[in-house]
Write a structure and sequence with these properties.
Blueprint lengths: L1 E10 L4 H11 L4 E8 L3 E8 L2 H10 L3 E13 L4 H11 L4 E9 L2 E8 L2 H10 L3 E2 L2 H5 L2
Antiparallel strand pairs: 1-3, 1-4, 2-3, 4-6, 4-7, 5-6
């Protein structure tokens, strides 16, 4: 399933991630998944939240540079080899992965994928009976 992901550009200085986490928490927005990458000057916080539109507005009101992108949210078994099978399907379809991140809990692993061709990737995964889930179904929101 395609879900909305936010990318927030942060100065590479102490406390910037803390500020975002506290700001969103104060506004009752839950961070469902996130990853942080950085270079010497800035970091990029990519996250999936419980209320995308509200989060964008709040962050922009506080002068954060925020962009929104569609990503694929996939659920697969949390066992050795599962992700390799998924990646074989994607690679064989000649789809390039720009980035991805994952988290696991119990028997399920949840994978966020940003491919170069969202529609093709979603179709290939669906055609192979993989579990693309909507974030609101996963968290019952």
């Amino acid at each position: 399933m395609l879900v909305k992901q936010l990318s927030i550009f942060l100065e590479n200085k102490r406390g910037r991630f803390t500020e975002v986490a506290k700001l969103l928490g104060k506004e009752d927005i839950n961070m469902r998944a996130f990853t942080v990458s950085e270079n010497s000057d800035f970091g990029i916080l990519r996250l999936i939240v419980s209320d995308t539109d509200k989060a964008i507005q709040i962050l922009r009101d506080h002068k954060y540079a925020v962009t929104e992108a569609d990503v694929i949210f996939l659920c697969c078994p949390n066992q050795p080899g599962s992700l390799g099978k998924v990646m074989d399907i994607i690679t064989n379809a000649k789809i390039f992965i720009e980035y991805m991140y994952a988290f696991a809990e119990g028997d399920s692993a949840n994978v966020v994928i940003r491919p170069d061709n969202l529609e093709k990737c979603a179709k290939v995964l669906n055609d192979n009976k993989l579990d693309l889930i909507a974030i609101n179904e996963l968290y019952k929101i």
